[in-house]
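ARCHIVE CARD
Drawer: 12
Card no.: 0347
Subject: one protein chain, sequence and derived structure
Cross-reference: see card 0346
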Amino acid sequence: MFRCGIAYPRCKWIVPLLLLFAIIFDIIAIAATSGWVEDEEGNSHYTSMWEECRGRNDNWDCRSLMENSWAQAVAALMIIGLLILIVAFIVSCVALCGSLKVDLLRLIGVLLIIVVVLQIIALIIYPVKFNEELFEGHYYYTWAYGFGWGATILCIGCAILFCCLPRYEDELTGLAKTKYLYSSA
Protein backbone atom coordinates (compact mmCIF):
# COMPACT_ATOMS: atom_id res chain seq x y z
CA MET A 1 0.00 0.00 0.00
CA PHE A 2 1.12 3.55 -0.60
CA ARG A 3 -0.22 7.04 -0.05
CA CYS A 4 -0.20 9.66 -2.72
CA GLY A 5 -0.41 13.40 -2.16
CA ILE A 6 0.79 16.16 0.13
CA ALA A 7 1.62 15.57 3.79
CA TYR A 8 -0.61 18.45 4.90
CA PRO A 9 0.46 18.56 8.57
CA ARG A 10 3.97 19.40 7.36
CA CYS A 11 2.59 22.47 5.58
CA LYS A 12 1.99 23.98 9.01
CA TRP A 13 5.70 24.65 9.41
CA ILE A 14 7.07 24.46 5.86
CA VAL A 15 5.00 27.33 4.44
CA PRO A 16 5.96 29.85 7.17
CA LEU A 17 9.57 28.72 6.70
CA LEU A 18 9.32 29.51 2.98
CA LEU A 19 7.97 32.96 3.87
CA LEU A 20 10.93 33.46 6.19
CA PHE A 21 13.28 32.62 3.30
CA ALA A 22 11.40 35.12 1.10
CA ILE A 23 11.89 37.79 3.78
CA ILE A 24 15.62 37.02 3.95
CA PHE A 25 15.91 37.15 0.14
CA ASP A 26 14.09 40.50 0.06
CA ILE A 27 16.34 41.97 2.74
CA ILE A 28 19.42 40.84 0.81
CA ALA A 29 18.08 42.37 -2.43
CA ILE A 30 17.13 45.66 -0.80
CA ALA A 31 20.26 46.06 1.35
CA ALA A 32 22.82 44.97 -1.25
CA THR A 33 25.34 47.71 -1.96
CA SER A 34 27.39 45.73 -4.48
CA GLY A 35 24.85 46.38 -7.19
CA TRP A 36 21.86 45.03 -9.01
CA VAL A 37 23.59 45.65 -12.34
CA GLU A 38 27.28 45.75 -13.25
CA ASP A 39 29.22 46.22 -16.45
CA GLU A 40 30.55 43.27 -18.39
CA GLU A 41 33.97 43.31 -16.72
CA GLY A 42 32.48 44.17 -13.33
CA ASN A 43 35.11 46.78 -12.58
CA SER A 44 34.08 50.17 -13.98
CA HIS A 45 30.31 50.67 -13.49
CA TYR A 46 27.65 49.23 -11.21
CA THR A 47 24.30 50.30 -9.82
CA SER A 48 22.40 49.10 -6.81
CA MET A 49 18.83 49.94 -5.95
CA TRP A 50 20.17 53.02 -4.16
CA GLU A 51 23.18 54.36 -6.07
CA GLU A 52 25.21 54.32 -9.26
CA CYS A 53 29.01 54.06 -9.11
CA ARG A 54 31.63 54.57 -11.82
CA GLY A 55 35.37 54.31 -11.57
CA ARG A 56 38.38 52.05 -11.46
CA ASN A 57 40.27 50.30 -8.65
CA ASP A 58 39.77 52.32 -5.45
CA ASN A 59 38.71 55.54 -7.20
CA TRP A 60 34.89 55.35 -7.37
CA ASP A 61 32.49 58.20 -8.02
CA CYS A 62 29.04 57.34 -6.66
CA ARG A 63 25.79 59.26 -6.99
CA SER A 64 22.42 58.54 -5.48
CA LEU A 65 19.70 57.14 -7.72
CA MET A 66 17.09 58.51 -5.33
CA GLU A 67 17.10 61.74 -7.35
CA ASN A 68 15.18 59.82 -10.04
CA SER A 69 11.48 59.27 -9.52
CA TRP A 70 11.65 55.76 -10.99
CA ALA A 71 14.32 54.73 -8.45
CA GLN A 72 12.20 56.13 -5.63
CA ALA A 73 9.26 54.10 -6.94
CA VAL A 74 11.36 50.92 -7.11
CA ALA A 75 12.63 51.43 -3.56
CA ALA A 76 9.15 52.23 -2.23
CA LEU A 77 7.56 49.22 -3.92
CA MET A 78 10.25 46.84 -2.68
CA ILE A 79 10.12 48.17 0.88
CA ILE A 80 6.31 48.16 1.03
CA GLY A 81 6.36 44.62 -0.38
CA LEU A 82 8.83 43.58 2.32
CA LEU A 83 6.69 45.11 5.08
CA ILE A 84 3.55 43.35 3.82
CA LEU A 85 5.56 40.12 3.55
CA ILE A 86 6.62 40.45 7.19
CA VAL A 87 2.98 40.96 8.21
CA ALA A 88 1.99 37.88 6.17
CA PHE A 89 4.73 35.86 7.89
CA ILE A 90 3.54 36.89 11.36
CA VAL A 91 -0.09 36.12 10.50
CA SER A 92 0.95 32.75 9.04
CA CYS A 93 2.74 31.85 12.27
CA VAL A 94 -0.41 32.76 14.22
CA ALA A 95 -2.65 30.85 11.81
CA LEU A 96 -0.59 27.68 11.45
CA CYS A 97 1.79 27.26 14.37
CA GLY A 98 -0.78 27.24 17.17
CA SER A 99 -4.29 26.00 16.82
CA LEU A 100 -5.25 26.10 13.14
CA LYS A 101 -7.09 29.28 12.12
CA VAL A 102 -8.32 28.49 8.62
CA ASP A 103 -10.07 31.83 8.15
CA LEU A 104 -6.68 33.60 8.13
CA LEU A 105 -5.18 31.45 5.37
CA ARG A 106 -6.92 33.22 2.48
CA LEU A 107 -6.03 36.60 4.00
CA ILE A 108 -2.38 35.57 3.95
CA GLY A 109 -2.79 34.46 0.32
CA VAL A 110 -4.23 37.87 -0.62
CA LEU A 111 -1.40 39.68 1.21
CA LEU A 112 1.14 37.59 -0.68
CA ILE A 113 -0.55 38.32 -4.02
CA ILE A 114 -0.23 42.04 -3.21
CA VAL A 115 3.47 41.51 -2.40
CA VAL A 116 3.97 39.69 -5.70
CA VAL A 117 2.32 42.46 -7.72
CA LEU A 118 4.35 45.21 -5.99
CA GLN A 119 7.65 43.39 -6.39
CA ILE A 120 7.09 42.36 -10.00
CA ILE A 121 6.33 45.98 -10.86
CA ALA A 122 9.53 47.12 -9.08
CA LEU A 123 11.67 44.39 -10.64
CA ILE A 124 10.42 45.30 -14.11
CA ILE A 125 10.67 49.09 -13.73
CA TYR A 126 14.32 48.88 -12.65
CA PRO A 127 15.83 47.27 -15.79
CA VAL A 128 13.56 49.21 -18.14
CA LYS A 129 14.56 52.59 -16.68
CA PHE A 130 18.18 51.49 -16.28
CA ASN A 131 18.33 50.70 -20.00
CA GLU A 132 16.67 54.02 -20.88
CA GLU A 133 18.74 56.30 -18.66
CA LEU A 134 22.01 54.68 -17.54
CA PHE A 135 22.87 52.04 -20.14
CA GLU A 136 26.30 52.47 -21.77
CA GLY A 137 27.39 49.06 -23.02
CA HIS A 138 27.05 45.45 -21.91
CA TYR A 139 25.72 44.81 -18.42
CA TYR A 140 24.82 41.84 -16.26
CA TYR A 141 22.13 41.66 -13.61
CA THR A 142 23.83 40.44 -10.46
CA TRP A 143 22.98 38.13 -7.59
CA ALA A 144 21.24 40.88 -5.60
CA TYR A 145 18.69 41.43 -8.37
CA GLY A 146 18.30 37.64 -8.54
CA PHE A 147 17.49 37.53 -4.83
CA GLY A 148 14.65 39.98 -5.49
CA TRP A 149 13.23 37.62 -8.10
CA GLY A 150 13.81 34.64 -5.81
CA ALA A 151 11.75 36.27 -3.07
CA THR A 152 9.00 37.06 -5.55
CA ILE A 153 8.89 33.48 -6.86
CA LEU A 154 8.69 32.12 -3.31
CA CYS A 155 5.80 34.51 -2.63
CA ILE A 156 3.97 33.30 -5.74
CA GLY A 157 4.23 29.68 -4.59
CA CYS A 158 3.21 30.50 -1.02
CA ALA A 159 0.26 32.60 -2.23
CA ILE A 160 -1.03 29.64 -4.22
CA LEU A 161 -0.60 27.34 -1.22
CA PHE A 162 -2.33 29.71 1.18
CA CYS A 163 -5.25 30.19 -1.21
CA CYS A 164 -5.66 26.41 -1.61
CA LEU A 165 -5.04 25.23 1.97
CA PRO A 166 -8.49 26.19 3.38
CA ARG A 167 -10.01 23.44 1.21
CA TYR A 168 -7.97 20.89 3.14
CA GLU A 169 -8.80 21.84 6.72
CA ASP A 170 -9.38 18.22 7.81
CA GLU A 171 -6.09 17.13 6.28
CA LEU A 172 -4.24 19.98 8.00
CA THR A 173 -5.67 19.14 11.39
CA GLY A 174 -5.10 15.41 10.90
CA LEU A 175 -8.83 14.54 11.10
CA ALA A 176 -9.13 13.24 7.55
CA LYS A 177 -9.25 9.52 6.97
CA THR A 178 -6.27 8.21 5.01
CA LYS A 179 -7.16 7.33 1.43
CA TYR A 180 -5.18 4.61 -0.24
CA LEU A 181 -4.82 4.33 -3.97
CA TYR A 182 -4.07 0.66 -3.98
CA SER A 183 -4.52 -2.12 -1.48
CA SER A 184 -3.81 -5.78 -1.93
CA ALA A 185 -6.28 -8.38 -0.76
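Annotation on reverse: Strands lie at 37-39, 45-47, 51-56, 59-64, 139-141. The first helix runs from residue 8 to 31.
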